[in-house]
Automatic annotation (TrEMBL):
Lineage start: Eukaryota, Metazoa, Chordata, Craniata, Vertebrata
Gene symbol of the encoding locus: Tbc1d32
Stated name of the protein: BROMI protein
Chain ranges of the BROMI C-terminal Rab TBC-like domain: 1-243
Species of the source: Pteruthius melanotis
Top-rank lineage group of the source organism: Eukaryota
Amino acid sequence: VLAELIEKFVSHLSESQMDCYFSTGSYKVMDTDVKKENLSSVQKLGVEMTVRYGKYLNLLKEDAENGLCFVLMNCEEFLKQQQRTVVSSLCCLQEHYAGYDWFASSIFLIMSGDREKTLTFLQQFSRLLVSAFLWLPRLHLSMHLPVTTLEYGIHPVYFCSAHHVEMLLKAELPLVCSAFHMSGFTPSQICLQWITQCFWNYMDWSEICHYIAICIFLGPDYQVYMCISVFRHLQQDILKHTEA
């Protein structure tokens, strides 16, 4: 039901010029068989984890690994069309996105391993503003960002979403804010980790689906509210750890 709902919603929005924040060129999906060997070691590890998790949730079948590799390779090629060349020694500014694409993997699971549905959804989704915040590889070396922003290698999720979380945390949860200040960590570091991984390893699958759906339906600012609500939920634990 969720797959059908977000599919129809995103398809409807992507057809409206008013809602399309990013322009995307035409992309023809690669027909050739994509081999796992073409992926980086980080991607291979991510694929294994995703497939294992998908089978545990009874969402994926035996041949799911090839389908996920196909999706990841096509996403990389599709997003490459909208990238700039930046000469830098920073690891995060090399041609390939340094991490694993947790968002595309989450959509692959929501679509029960249907690679065509997943790719169609991601291509349409990439036109919407919310894609910049939910799908981190979406803005990797992106021509949609100013060159000065790109050269710093800091993703907009960090200086937009995570920054707003810190501002709200001061007002909403001052004790949690103080606890972070005393620890030498910043809430934005933790939020960036959660958001990059789509809350994998932190929330149950149904909650991950709710997070993705809420942000798609209600807007990217709900990413900030979600992080604040998690900090509120963890407040007693955070304060207990601070005392200890």
